């Protein structure tokens, strides 16, 4: 349907946009180095701003979760070629991020502010480390597949898509959802917490906890006893609840909604 050049360009641009999207969110939550940070802009009334911001968080999250569900993909790939499905998802994510940032309502009332220089830099180091952990997690089950390039390249060279295997080691041997864990942690890692950022942190944490229920239901339905066994061995978010050190193999394709 599409030329090889178009397929590669479409996926390549999506990859660049996705990386730019990540960089912007990092700066947005840090309130540094971007045109609009989480505390930038003219404040509005408190409760309407809280309601608006929570709605934006859930709209952003619903895009990520709904488009990752099997029922959605089965219908969506009737319109979009499977080789470009992930890349198209990334374009949609960029739009969702733009909506979140543009319409975000700042509430710059201080909740806490760290004065210690050592603690200040330790918090920022932890913040960047968690983002680094999230980015590293994408390589565990296929970085280029996660960002849509592998699917496009496979199509261009005429190779039949192969189901890659996910081995529950490293980050995925410690917690089942390292990327989701990162989304819950990063909003809290700031030396200057405002009411606006706490709304983002609380809203994101609540959303991830709810969305994980549906994600795991999909995984159990798809993998059955394999995932049930994995779930008994590796905790969802809290590493110190880990019970055993074992390796479990599950398909990587099922982790791409995080």
Low-confidence stretches: 252-256
Fraction of helical residues: 55-70%
Instruction: Note the overall shape.
Output: globular
With helices defined by DSSP (H or I, 4 residues minimum), what is the helix count? 11
* Percentage of residues in DSSP E strands: 5-15%
Major sheet description? 2 strands, antiparallel
Average pLDDT works out at 88
Instruction: Tell me the strand order in the biggest sheet.
Output: 1-3
C-alpha termini separation = 29 Å
- Write down the domain tally: 1
**Structural class per helix/strand content?**
mainly alpha
Order of helices and strands: HHHHEHHHEHHEHHE
What would you report as the Rg, rounded to the nearest angstrom?
Answer: 19 Å
- Strand tally: 4
Describe the secondary-structure layout.
Layout: H1 4-30, H2 46-66, H3 70-76, H4 82-103, E1 110-113, H5 117-140, H6 143-146, H7 149-156, E2 165-167, H8 171-174, H9 178-185, E3 192-194, H10 195-223, H11 225-233, E4 249-251
Antiparallel strand pairs: 1-3, 2-4
Helix pairs in contact: 1-4, 1-7, 2-4, 2-10, 4-7, 5-9, 9-10
């Amino acid at each position: 349907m599409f030329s090889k050049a178009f397929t590669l360009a479409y996926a390549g641009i999506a990859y660049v946009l996705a990386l730019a999207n990540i960089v912007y969110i990092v700066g947005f939550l840090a309130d540094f180095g971007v045109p609009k940070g989480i505390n930038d802009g003219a404040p509005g009334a408190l409760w309407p701003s809280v309601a608006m911001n929570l709605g934006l968080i859930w709209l952003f999250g619903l895009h990520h979760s709904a488009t990752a569900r099997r029922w959605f993909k089965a219908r969506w790939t009737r319109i979009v070629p499977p080789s470009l499905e992930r890349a198209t998802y990334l374009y949609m994510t960029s739009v969702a991020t733009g909506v979140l940032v543009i319409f975000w309502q700042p509430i710059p009332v201080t909740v806490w502010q760290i004065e210690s220089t050592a603690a200040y830099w330790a918090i920022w180091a932890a913040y960047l480390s968690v983002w680094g952990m999230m980015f590293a997690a994408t390589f565990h089950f296929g970085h280029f597949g996660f960002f849509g390039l592998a699917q496009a390249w496979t199509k261009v060279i005429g190779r039949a898509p192969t189901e890659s295997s996910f081995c529950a080691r490293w980050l995925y041997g410690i917690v089942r959802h390292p990327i989701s864990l990162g989304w819950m942690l990063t909003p809290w890692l700031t030396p200057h917490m405002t009411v606006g950022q706490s709304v983002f942190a609380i809203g994101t944490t609540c959303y991830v906890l709810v969305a994980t229920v549906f994600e795991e239901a999909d995984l159990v339905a798809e993998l059955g006893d394999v995932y049930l066994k994995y779930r008994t061995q590796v905790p969802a978010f809290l590493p110190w609840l880990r019970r055993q050190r074992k390796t479990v193999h599950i398909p990587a394709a099922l982790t791409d909604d995080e």
